[in-house]
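Supplementary Note 2. Why include the ligand at all?

Several targets in our set were suspected to adopt different conformations when bound, so apo predictions alone were not considered sufficient. For every target with a known small-molecule partner we therefore ran a joint prediction. The input for adenosine-5'-triphosphate is given below.
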Amino acid sequence: MRKEFISNISHDIHLLLPPAPFDQEAHILKVGEYNVDRQIRRLIHSYEWKIDLNNLMLSHDILDVEITADGALLDTVWDNLLSNALKYNSTFAEVEIELMEHKNEITVSFKDTGVGMDVAVKQHVFERIYREDTANSQRTRDSGLGLSIVHKVVFLHRGGIDVESNQNDQGSTFTVMLPKR
Ligand SMILES: Nc1ncnc2c1ncn2[C@@H]1O[C@H](COP(=O)(O)OP(=O)(O)OP(=O)(O)O)[C@@H](O)[C@H]1O
Ligand SMILES: [Mg+2]
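The joint prediction is reproduced in token form.
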């Protein structure tokens, strides 16, 4: 069932059906203790080559925090948000990652100084296969599925995601909120 779900969110591009109610899908999660800071540090490490290659600056403020969640699925969330922040950015730009702990939830934000998005792009950005038609997006062969998967995984965890962005190279900030338990 879980395998089927992952395969669906990755490949089922003809999915035009309305989303299934939350309760029908929440059992797909394989939850356990998940060390968020460790995973994000690992991820940063795995992107170091790309950061150096593009003369980007990455800074982070990451508190030690463990939550109950599906680690494998959340790893894909951080990976997509960081890869977007690096991809839709320019040389010598900056990316900032912040992991904060609140009373019942955590927030993880990825802030970039990149190309940004206008209102129309922002409105559709969590839909399947939405890609802004820009020189930057044409250069890549990516599927445009990343943020729809991010949205789905966060939704299954009863969390939320918010995006603040302006075009004209003003940058974007994606903030994920997740309950701790
Ligand atoms: N940090 C960002 N800055 C500017 N635009 C962004 C950013 N993140 C996403 N976008 C826009 O949203 C679109 C959708 O992002 P998404 O991650 O779903 O797809 P992708 O990165 O193009 O492909 P994939 O993630 O499947 O490899 C992108 O093509 C881009 O136009
Ligand atoms: Mg992406």
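DSSP finds eight helices and seven strands in the chain. Residues 163 and 174 are 5 Å apart (CA to CA). Comparable summaries for the other entries are listed in the accompanying table.
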